[in-house]
Amino acid sequence: IRKLGTASNVLKVGTAEIAYATAMKRDAATTVSATMAISRISGISVFATGGIGGVHRDIDWDVSQDIIELSRTRMIVVSAGVKSILDVPKTLEFLETFGVTIVGYRTDSFPLFHCSKSPYKINLTISTPEEAAQILKEKERLGIEGGVLVANPIPEEDSMDFDELRTLIESALKSAETNGISGKALTPYLLGRLAELSSGKTLDANISLLINNAALGGRIAASLGAEQ
User: What are the chain's domains?
Assistant: First the structure.
């Protein structure tokens, strides 16, 4: 991790770029899609992340590889929803279209990364790690491909206000447009800008949700392991 954080010319790779990075012997940081692909190859069934990628706002056809990989790789991904900088309604529509199972962990409100609640509802909910594990086992038993996205809200005490965050995001998006930021550079730029605009509040929230997701992912993995 230290090397990736300090080295120069580190690639950001999705599933499509993994082979290039290994063939060229390049240092690379993996997106959710690449992490899923590598996990599948390694026999790992559960992993936790901050938030998945999706459809960017006001940009035609900028759709993350994360959605495609979730649609074809049978595993559990624990996340605090999707990154709040994205077009959430379009992202949810894409996830539904590609047959991704979305379950809310003790919530029926789709979390937005830094926010525990949003106006977007989740139809399927679970209340225990064991239930998440059972859903994955059933997909395997029935021969149904595709992942299970477990939407795990950030702890309420660390959640940001939805309206406050929306205002910050609009400002960050305008800054990105002014500076000509797009493509793979857009997400890290926006997250960095949000940290600046919020005086570090989004970064603190990010740390909290990562710890929370890792804890739930560990409990789900333990449940899967105990039943094998």
Answer: 44-227 (3.40.1790.10)
